[in-house]
Amino acid sequence: MIEFKEVSKSFGSTVALDNVSILFPKGKIIGLFGPNGAGKSTSMKLIMGLNRCDQGEVWVDGQSPQNKKQDVAYLPEIDYLYPWMNIAQAADFIRTFYADWDEAKYRELVQYLNLREDMKISKISKGQRAKTKLLLTVSRRAPYLLMDEPLSGIDILTREEIINTLIKDYREGEQTIIISTHEIAEVESLVDEVIFLDRGQIRLGGNAEDLRVERNMSLVELMKEAFRNAD
Amino acid sequence: MEFNASQPIYKQIVDDFKKRLIRGELKEGDKIPSQREYAEKARINPNTVQRAYREMENMNMVETLRGQGTFISISEDKLEDIKMEMAVNLVDNFIKEMESLGYSAEAMLEILREEQSRRKEAVISDRV
């Protein structure tokens, strides 16, 4: 379980998170939704221990994020892969850092995603880079998987491949996936729990199926409504 | 199967199995896909499929045998109950929608009768 207790974080005069309390339950796929600048990436970086909050506390299984880095696999929004590497070299790079690297899974996924180890990062398409990032993240058997905008700016077929990979590899009950996106329609049937963030605050949160029962609305419609009411 | 995103997905999975049972496409003893197969094929969260399968077990529609899979296991009475329940739900929705348009019960019955005879005629003229 990941817990945010009254967390605030600003960058200069920009408030990224404003007194936010969130529980990310264990063993669920959680959608972190909201427009650009809502605080999604900041939340992920706090969980990764890449940023520290100004106020409040962040706990990963009751410990500080700095002590739990080995338990969290992170797919950042930015293109972090070195262009001069090929996929095999990029995998080598990650493999040396993490004890939970699963070589068999990596081999299987290279095939499944139609990638080749000798593909050079600078030569491949945007969709293939997105798939490579996914490959390198999910080839670790980390209990927590954080994915920041894994679907943005990618063609629909590649998006489907990414979602299929997540479903295929998901370990029910033991793995927790937090996925931030504004492509909510794509992940309607993928997420258990949702958190709608807007300008550093939570507008709505809860179990996706319960929200559908209560409101008779899809997650896309719910998000629109939550944000309309906020204005 | 296409899902309606404004309705709970686990319920739509259960309803789909109910319909296939009523239509006779699935029968007592038939093996249904494993939860994982279902999740991958339908592209939905494995936790949601698990919830649907658990619900069907609790309703005595299916039975999971360890190491063998999940099988249809339903009594005739239970199947009749499910059929009736689905019919009542459909009629209930119909009545609510029609009432919201201002139809009385009498007017609804009249429309149903007219529609039924129109369909019969259509069938006959097709044959001729």
Walk me through this protein's architecture:
The complex is a heterodimer of chains A (231) and B (128). Chain A is of the alpha/beta class and 231 residues long. In chain A, 34% of the residues lie in helices and 26% in strands. Chain A is built from 8 helices and 9 strands. Chain A has helices at 40-48, 87-95, 103-112, 126-138, 156-169, 184-187, 208-215, 219-230, and strands at residues 2-11, 14-24, 29-33, 55-60, 72-75, 144-148, 176-181, 193-198, 201-207. In chain A, the strands form 2 sheets. Chain A has a 6-stranded mixed β-sheet, sandwiched between helices. In chain A, strands 2-1-4 form a 3-stranded antiparallel β-sheet. The longest helix of chain A has 14 residues, at 156-169. The model of chain A has no long low-confidence stretch (mean pLDDT 92). Chain B has 5 helices and 3 strands. In chain B, a hairpin with a 3-residue loop joins strand 2 and strand 3 (69-72). The mean pLDDT of chain B is 92. Chain B has 2 domains: 9-74, Arc Repressor Mutant, subunit A (Orthogonal Bundle); 77-127. Helices cover 65% and strands 8% of the residues of chain B. Chains A and B meet through helix 5, helix 7 and helix 8 of A and helix 1, helix 2 and helix 3 of B.
Number of domains of chain A: 1
SS class of chain A: alpha/beta
Sheet with the most strands: spatial strand order of chain B: 1-3-2
CATH superfamily caption of the largest domain in chain B? Winged helix-like DNA-binding domain superfamily/Winged helix DNA-binding domain
Poorly predicted runs of chain A? none
Largest sheet of chain A: 6 strands, mixed
Secondary structure topology:
The complex is a heterodimer of chains A (231) and B (128).
Chain A: E1 2-11, E2 14-24, E3 29-33, H1 40-48, E4 55-60, E5 72-75, H2 87-95, H3 103-112, H4 126-138, E6 144-148, H5 156-169, E7 176-181, H6 184-187, E8 193-198, E9 201-207, H7 208-215, H8 219-230
Parallel strand pairs in A: 3-7, 3-8, 5-6, 6-7
Antiparallel strand pairs in A: 1-2, 1-4, 8-9
Chain B: H1 9-22, E1 31-32, H2 35-42, H3 46-58, E2 62-65, E3 69-72, H4 76-100, H5 105-127
Antiparallel strand pairs in B: 1-3, 2-3
Helix pairs in contact in B: 1-3, 1-4, 2-3
